[in-house]
Amino acid sequence: EPNTAPKVAKKTVPPVFIGRKWTFQPEASDAESSGDRLTWKLGENPPAGLEINSSTGELTWTPDDEVEIAKVKVNVVATDDGSPPLSTTIPLELSEKSVFKIIFDF
After folding, report:
1. pTM
2. 14 CB-contact burial (10 Å; exposed 0-12 / middle 13-18 / buried 19+)
3. pLDDT > 70: what percent of the chain?
């Protein structure tokens, strides 16, 4: 049976807050899943500090205030271990929000 590329489950990406740890778990499955395992990586030009677990695909990031408040586009690539290996690219749009600290002086 020929190898097919991993299929991606649609999930809502939570907003990213500057200065707070953010995590997201993309999901993908492989039709030939009995033996195929997926490996994960970030596509080109991810924002500074964004990391991915190559085994699970979990993304983690704590953006600092030097990150431009905007929508950041990131590609996540899931590759199976079939023959030949096939990949699926998951485009994510991360909406960044700033969080203001309010200090009360009495």
Report:
1. 0.81
2. exposed
3. 85
Phi-psi category of 104—alpha, beta or left, where left has phi over 0 and alpha has psi -120 to 50?
beta
Tell me the pLDDT of the chain averaged across its residues: 83
Residue written as tokens 């309010």? Answer: 102
| 30 vs 35: CA distance, rounded Å | 9
What are the tokens at 66?
């030097």
Residues comprising the chain, all counted: 106
| SS3 of residue 27 by DSSP | strand
Number of C-beta neighbours around residue 90 at 10 A: 20
Indicate if the pLDDT at residue 102 is higher than 80: no
